[in-house]
Amino acid sequence: MKKLLLLATLFAFASCDNTVLYNETAEDFKDNRWLATDVKNFEFELARDINAGDIIMKFSHVHDPQFTTIPVEAVITYPSGEKENVALNLELKDKEGNDLSECLGDVCDLFTPLKENSKLSKGKYNIAIRNSFPNIYLPNAITVGISVETDN
Description:
Strand order of the largest sheet: 1-11-4-8-7
Shape: globular
Radius of gyration: 15 Å
Distance between the termini: 33 Å
Order of helices and strands: HEEEEEEEEEEE
Structural class: mainly beta
Helix content: under 10%
C-alpha cells in the first residue's frame, strides 16, 4: 500500500509545473485511526525567500470513508516566531455524494491548501496538524502530510 501511495504522490507532483521545496508524510496511523490527541508536526527550513508559495496539506483515507467533511486544525509557526491558526473542513464529497479526493483502488488522496500564493520567508517553519473530529479518533485515516511548492 505504501508503494501505491508513493506512486500516486509522485504522479500528482510530476504533473505540475511547480517546484516542490518540501514534502513529508506521516504514515503512523495504527489501524487507520488518527487519535484526537495525535498532533502531527512537520518541520522544515526554506533556504530562500519565496514570493509566491503554496503550503498544501495531503490527507489519504480509505475509499468511501463514511464522512463528507473532517474538521482539522493547523498551527503554522513562521521563522519570525509568529503563529497562525488555520481551521479547515476537509471536504471529502460534494453535495451529490461524489468523491472530491483522487482515488486509486481503495486509497484516496485529498490535497487542500493551507496557504496559497503566499510570501514565505527564508528560515525554519513548523506546522502542527490535528484532527478536530468529535470522537477519540478519526477512522479510515491512512496518512497526513505537508508539501511546500512554488512556481518561481
